[in-house]
Amino acid sequence: MLYSPIKRSHPADKNNTDAKNIMSTHEEKLPKIPQNIKNLREELGIPENCCTYCGKVPSDGKLSFDEIVPCKDGGRYFQIKEKNPTVKELKDMAKKRNIRNRTKLTTKEQLLKALDIDIKKKIPLNITGACKICNNSKNDLKDDELRSWIRNGPKNGNGSYVPRENQERMIKWYSDNRSYIRTDDKNILHHIKQLQEKNKKHWEETEQETKKIVI
Ligand SMILES: [Zn+2]
Hints:
The protein is mostly helical. It is built from 9 helices and 2 strands; from the N terminus they run ααβααβααααα. Strands 1-2 form a two-stranded antiparallel sheet. The radius of gyration is 21 Å and the shape is globular. The chain binds zinc ion.
């Protein structure tokens, strides 16, 4: 081939979006997250503009959102579509969740209360703000690898990014809230895997298509 093919977008992006969608679809079936639980940033007393892991303001000023457990591994994910849901949306939600005496709930306040929704709390427990350096270094690590990253930093690195006083608190927070952070449901995990295999196959097939001479 005389000309090199154009740099392609990465299949991981599609997989990532699909995994997020799958987790979002199942969110209502998973253990309900109690409103009084602190997210990791709050638990550690990290200011909102700082990285949850290193505790510093990012050098470029930008915080990215890190899935503590990647959605492809069952990390929980949801987005409240509207900051301000309509009464109709809330009524639909109450119906879906089979809330008792729901026909008597008419105002938005009543519905929000019955549904136990805090519209100010938009960020899932599994998502936290991180600087690029921590986010890239932590990447997809989970379970023992994640604990080791928190305590010791990356393999072959120069130590942990997480301040010493926060390391065990971070690990404890994760253990205490595990079921609110991720799911082990075999059907969901299988579904994610299946869709990723389908994506892979589709990707390979269309790659071949792009090489077909049609003129
Ligand atoms: Zn950081």
